[in-house]
Amino acid sequence: MIYVLLSVLCSVLVSVLLKLARRADIDVGQAIAWNYVVTSVLTALLLQPTPASLREPGVPWLALAALGILLPTIFLALAASVRHAGIVRSDAAQRLSLLLSLLAAFALFGEQLTAPKGIGIALGLLALLCMVWRSGHGTAERGTAGWLYPLLVFAGFGVIDILFKRVAQAGVPLGASLQAMFALALLVAFALQLWRRMQGQARFTARSALAGLLLGLANFGNILFYLRGHRALPQHPALVFASMNLGVVALGALVGLLLFHERLSRLNLAGVALALLAIGVIARG
């Protein structure tokens, strides 16, 4: 379970770094771009992918290309969500995106809908509604952004998970698929930053590059420790899944409330509690 704990810590650390970025005068877009340099290098060094597998017939390049575009753009949405809606709701929205992948499993991949999973999906949708509901007060909520960005995070990470399943179904080795995704994401992220630079909206700074290094380490650590957690407990995937998702929601809530003093309405807090319950029910089912 130590790997799952480390993965939870890395996941929440990503949100904390995004929260602190603006205070430290860091350009989040640049940091995200440099993050993919780090994840690409670490994937090559630690996972040792075999590029030849990407030349095999049946490689889902459309799904890989979509992931290359979505990964950096949804990362930007996550940063905006953390800024406008806070860590608590952003982490919970990201974890509740599993509802979309579950619905896709039933609609597209032939999985059978069980009563616990159906109840979990209903609870999850109710939790999402409670978390994005605007109470009309609180520093974390700023007009439309207070609910729009968490919804984008929810939808974006759900689509990313579905695309991951599509790549996994095609039989592409994990290291090679991650290397391809990160390389494509790197190109997209830097293309966006070069466009901003040409428009005079940003300039490259060493501070943002250093922040990207830290962000990349946390982002890759989240992925690596999660995978090792599954390898360490191969007979208990539900335990790893539930521990990871529940851990991120719970730790994210504690960090947001205690460290950043995020203000949540009673309805928002009820939504976080329902999110924990929904993830537990789905994992048990």
UniProtKB/TrEMBL annotation:
Membrane topology (UniProt): Multi-pass membrane protein
InterPro entries, alphabetized: AA-Vitamin_Transporters, EamA_dom, EmrE-like
Coiled-coil segments on the chain, per record: none
Entry keyword set: Membrane, Transmembrane, Transmembrane helix
Pfam families linked to this entry: EamA (PF00892)
Record-given protein name: Drug/metabolite transporter (DMT)-like permease
Family: Belongs to the EamA transporter family.
Organism: Rhodanobacter soli
Localization in the cell: Membrane
Transmembrane segments: 59-80, 92-109, 115-133, 145-164, 170-192, 204-227, 239-260, 267-283
Highest rank taxon of the organism: Bacteria
